[in-house]
Amino acid sequence: MEEFSKLHEDSNDEAQQLATEHGFDSVRKLPFGEGLFHFYPQDIPHHRQRPSLKHWQSLEKNHRVKKVFQQEGFDRQKRGYRNINDIDGNMNDPLFTKQWYLINTGQADGTPGLDLNVAEAWKLGFTGKGVTIAIMDDGIDYLHPDLAANYNAEASYDFSSNDPYPYPRYTDDWFNSHGTRCAGEVSAAANNNICGIGVAYNSKVAGIRMLDQPFMTDVIEASSISHMPQVIDIYSASWGPTDDGKTVDGPRELTLQAMADGVNKGRGGKGSIYVWASGDGGSYDDCNCDGYASSMWTISINSAINDGRTALYDESCSSTLASTFSNGRKRNPEAGVATTDLYGNCTLRHSGTSAAAPEAAGVFALALEANPGLTWRDMQHLTVLTSKRNQLHDEVHQWRRNGVGLEFNHLFGYGVLDAGSMVKMAQEWKTIPERFHCVAGSIQDTHKIQSGSKLLLAITTDACQGKDNFVRYLEHVQAVITVNASRRGDLNINVTSPMATKSILLSQRPRDNDSKVGFDKWPFMTTHTWGEDPGAPGSWR
Question: CA distances (Å), 205 to each of 134, 136, 185, 290, in order?
Answer without folding.
Answer: 6, 11, 10, 26
